[in-house]
Amino acid sequence: MGALHILWKLQLILCFTQFGKYYVSASDSVCDIKTKWRVDCYPETVPSVEQNCESRGCCYKPVMSNDNVPWCYYPSNYASYSLSKISNTSYGYTGLLNIQSPSPKHYGKEISWLSLDVIFERKDRLHFRLRDANNSRYEVPISTPIVKKAADYPFMYDLKLEHDKFGIIIKRKSSGTVLFNSTIAPLIYFDQFLQISTSLPSTNVYGLGERHEDLLIDTNWKRLKFWARDQPPHENANLYGDHPLYIAVEDDGNAHGVFLLNSNAKEIELQPAPALTWRMVGGIMDFYVLLGPTPEMVVQQYTSIIGKPFLPPYWSLGFHLCRWGYESSNNTWDIVKKMRAASIPQDVQWNDIDYMSKYLDFTYDPVAFDTLPNLVSDLHQNNQHYVMIIDPGISDTQSSGSYSAYDDGIATNIFINDSRTLKPIEGVVWPGKTVFPDFTHPAIDVYWEKQLRMYHSKVPFDGVWIDMNEPSNFVHGSTSSCPNNLYENPPYVPHVNGHSLADRTLCSSSKHFKYYHYDVHSLTGLFEMKATSKALINIRKKRPFIISRSTFPSAGLYGGHWSGDIVSTWHDLKQSIASLVNFNMFGVPLVGADICGFSGDTTEELCIRWMQLGSFYPFSRNHNALTSSGQAPVDFSQETQDIMRKTLNLRYSLLPYLYSLFFSAHATGGTVAKALFFEFPLDKIALKIDTQFMWGNALLISPVLEEKASSVRAYFPKGNWYYLTGVFGKPIKTEGEWINIDAPLSNIPLHIRGGCIIPSQYPAITTAESRRNPLSLLVAPDEFGIAKGELYWDDGDSLDTLESNLFMHVLFTLKDNKLTSHVVSALRDEELVLSKVIVMNVHTPITAVYVNNIRETFQIGEFNILQFGCSLNLSKSFHIKWQ
């Protein structure tokens, strides 16, 4: 809350005290609502006063507090919609709603008649929509399932529709827990202001991003904003992406999700009832309720709507290196050579905007970057890859015929237009004055591929980094300002940074092929990802690799995300974990932050700790800004290089496991990196932890997040755990316990969960070389001596390997001192060798180990660790037993 708002409240309270009364616009009985259940009737930035509240027919009762409790709130009898007609359909119900009495016209045109669709899409997924009954409205143009027939009973939910004062109530059938209840406040449906509220079953609420905040969302009058923006991450800001999904964990450990498919500017207000209110400035109310009942299942149900994540190329899981400020291709090349000489793993080299000629997309500087094609050729010869940045702003000031990106766009009318002139709207980005491709245009794929293909013929890049695609604009709206209309100045503007929808971007009235920017602004990054993915597939005939700054639901279909311009601070190091697991919830598992921070100068200690954490980002890239000091591993002392090499080698050794997690996410729609509560939703402590996270269900990562710390206070949920780093194999058995773990500067604490089997591989300085090495299995039994795991393997780069059955999939099981594999699918042309098995915490005295009935030598080490060598082709099932 701002100081001005607090001052307003104090002044008004003094006034009320002086006169000994307060104003209530409605009768006291209908205003007798507990403070925590008040739903704000005056959400504008300027504080409410009696007259504002009275004009809206709402209750006005000031509260002396600094926690944003609304003074103006809806009375219990506020006019809403009634459900006047309902009919059965093949998919569920359809209904007709009409407004009981017209509301005050403070938000413009109210829609009197609404249509309701309730679609029983699956037993675990309910879909409902509220639309204008008489006129079409903008709806988000992404593909979602079309369901014409209701799922078969039994459903996991019960549905109740309130008629007189419309409301929708959804309960979990197994427990009776209310998951969604919109009767707590009136339904509001104006042309440019839509509002609906719901109760929440608990305060354990997650998601709702993009956010640079704690993982667990504060429900004490917390307001979140959604409107893609070029905004360096900080708290209480609307950032690069728009992901209106929340996951709530109920008191009994069940989890559910609620997804609003709406791309207009919006905000969400959470309150301690607990309850939540959605406000939108356009589109329709299009909700999905996901029944879980586990957090992982909620994500899978969510991605069954928006699309499951793509399977990234194997090389993209290696280490990436970049900076803005290499200044030349030779300087870039020197870093690559130094990394090789130091034997520090690196798979991908990047360039930021300084490689371009005059900051023009699809060009490179012919002087400073004259050897760029040679650098890329050298990378390819050494099994490495190259990625460069592309911004959506296309310069419109180059001489005619000299810049095809502009000339072709004009020829095909591909740019976003100024609604006043129907000519390309002009902004300012890095090259100066620019225009912007309309990524919703039906001809965008041909145009975009042509530009990328021409550049690829000169510099054969392997992936594309798309930045500034909110879209970012260095002037407000356009170089010729914005018109004064309801798109630019709607009746209500959510509390977005900059206080205007056009701030740092285009005029909201800008005209796309079919839409206004007002509706599709936050889709720009998603549709650029889609066009870039199609182009890369056609150009390279291999899996695309795309990292985007701006994202929207279904972005994971096309690429990954990095968390933008974070700062080289311990605070941002810690906050990156919540961002990491949030985007896994959003169906974008290929995610990471700029290792060591983007802006500001890092310290050697901070960069070491960040490299240790960043080695376990699914997308692992070190990148920093033009004015910051160099922070590549080879920019530091030999001792620091040794530590960074060690942590990257650890990552590379675990890539078979990480790649298998990406396969699982691609096949099932689940997560790769996850918060502890995903695996332990009944654990009240795990529900609050965002300083640790997991890879899959097997690997617990507990990074050092404090300066000068040499230990970590890590939480271990109930079960068996084993040290992977530090005292290798040392067991921990816990009912749920905080434990101090030694973490000297050279070490990041990693632990394997009992009951899991992790495939690993001897590391090399590139993934191509690592993939030639034999594999090992790390077997971590649970308390019953049982463990399970899997391995997915393919050539790492081809398209449609799953559809073409060109992959290996092996399931591993440990039970009764017997380790077996089951080959679900085998690769005919590649022999992948298992050469070592490590089994932790073997309690039975071992006298013999038999691999496929052949006796093998073995060792029993400290903590009863059993190790033995073998030579097994993983394309064929095996059985190993000991006695």
From TrEMBL:
Pfam families: Gal_mutarotas_2 (PF13802), Glyco_hydro_31_2nd (PF01055), Glyco_hydro_31_3rd (PF21365), Trefoil (PF00088). The keyword Signal applies. Residues 29-76 form the P-type domain. It comes from the Eukaryota. It is found in: Membrane. Keywords: Disulfide bond, Glycoprotein, Glycosidase, Hydrolase, Membrane, Signal. SMART domains: PD. Residues 1-26 form the signal peptide. PANTHER family: ALPHA-GLUCOSIDASE, GLYCOSIDE HYDROLASE FAMILY 31 N-TERMINAL DOMAIN-CONTAINING PROTEIN. Belongs to the glycosyl hydrolase 31 family. This is P-type domain-containing protein.
